[in-house]
Design goal:
The protein contains nine helices and eleven strands. It has about 280 residues and is an alpha/beta fold. It is globular.
Length: about 280
C-alpha cells in the first residue's frame, strides 16, 4: 500500500507561514499585492484566476485584475506590464499563458521585471534557478514539487531522481532544484531510449509528461517516491500522468489533491516574498 502524499497538509503549512508574514508586513504598512493579467477569456484561465483571488483574499493578499481582449495589440500588453513594473503598490504579476498566437511570447514575458515575476516566466528568473541564486522566483509548479518533498521530509541527498518532461514550467527547473538538494538527476523525454528502465532505477520520480496514465507498472519499482504533476480530464474523471493503481509500495501524490493544490499557495508565497524584498532594498 503506497503512502499518499496529500497536498492539503502542505497547503495548510504554507498558508500559516504566509498569513504570519502578511501580518508582519502590514505592521510595517506593506500590503502584499498581486496583479493578474489575462488576455482573452479562456475558461481554464478564468477558473484559476477565481481560485487565486479567493485564496489571496483569505490570506490577506490584495489582488488587481487586468483583463485585455484576445485581439489586443502587442504594444498594449507590453505597456500594461511596463506600468505594473513601475507601480510600487504591486509586488507580483501573474501573466496567463499561453498568449494568443499573434503575440510574441518571448518579447512580452521578458518585459516583466524579474523582481515581480512570481511565476518564473522570464529568462532572468529561470537563469536564477539554474545558477542557484535568489534572482527572481522559480516556476510555481516546479516549486510546489519541492515543497511537497520538503514537507514530507524526503531526503534527496545522494538519491537518484528522474524527471519526465523537459519544459521550462516543470521539468528543467525541477531538475535544477533537485540538483540543488544534492540529488543525482536524469531527465527523460520523448526521445529517451528505454525510458522504462531509467524510471525503474529512480528513487525519486517527478512526472510531467502531459499524457494520462502513461507511467504504468512497467516504469515503476517498489519504494519509489512519485510526484505526479499531470492533470488530465477524461470522460470518467481526472487522472494524473501516473497510473495510480499501479503504485503498490512507496509514496505518490494524488491527482487531484496533490501538486495542483500546492501550486496556488506557492504563487501567493512568492508574492509575499516579493513584497518583503521590496522593503529590504
Amino acid at each position: 500500500m503506497a503512502l499518499i502524499l496529500k497536498g492539503a497538509p502542505v497547503v495548510s503549512a504554507l498558508n500559516k507561514e504566509i498569513a504570519d508574514e502578511v501580518v508582519s508586513l502590514k505592521a510595517r504598512d506593506v500590503r502584499p499585492t498581486l496583479a493578474i493579467v489575462r488576455v482573452g477569456a479562456r475558461e481554464d484561465d478564468i477558473a484559476y484566476e477565481r481560485g487565486v483571488i479567493n485564496r489571496c483574499s483569505k490570506l490577506g493578499v490584495q489582488t488587481r485584475q487586468l483583463n485585455l481582449p484576445a485581439d489586443c495589440t502587442e504594444e498594449s500588453l507590453i505597456n500594461t506590464l511596463q506600468g505594473l513594473n513601475t507601480d510600487n503598490m504591486v509586488h507580483g504579476v501573474l501573466l496567463f499563458r499561453p498568449l494568443p498566437k499573434h503575440l510574441n511570447d518571448d518579447k512580452i514575458r521578458n518585459t516583466l521585471a524579474v523582481r515581480k515575476d512570481i511565476d518564473g516566466i522570464t529568462d532572468l528568473s529561470l537563469a536564477g534557478v539554474f545558477a542557484g541564486t535568489n534572482t527572481g522566483f522559480a516556476p510555481c509548479t516546479a516549486q510546489a514539487c519541492m515543497e511537497i518533498l520538503d514537507f514530507y521530509d524526503i531526503d534527496l541527498k545522494g538519491k537518484k531522481a528522474v524527471v519526465i518532461g523537459r519544459s521550462l514550467v516543470v521539468g528543467k527547473p525541477a531538475a535544477m532544484m533537485l540538483l540543488g538538494k544534492h540529488a543525482t538527476v536524469t531527465m527523460c523525454h520523448t526521445r529517451t531510449y528505454n525510458m522504462s528502465e531509467e524510471c525503474k532505477r529512480a528513487e525519486i520520480l517527478i512526472v510531467s509528461a502531459g499524457r494520462p496514465k502513461i507511467i504504468d507498472k512497467n516504469y515503476l519499482s517498489p519504494g519509489q517516491v512519485i510526484i505526479d504533476v499531470g492533470i488530465n480530464v477524461l470522460e470518467d474523471g481526472v487522472c494524473g500522468d501516473v497510473d495510480f493503481d499501479a503504485v503498490q509500495e512507496g509514496a505518490i501524490t494524488p491527482v487531484p489533491g496533490g501538486v495542483g493544490t500546492v501550486t496556488t499557495s506557492v504563487l501567493i508565497k512568492h508574492v509575499v516574498r516579493a513584497s518583503q524584498k521590496s522593503v529590504e532594498t
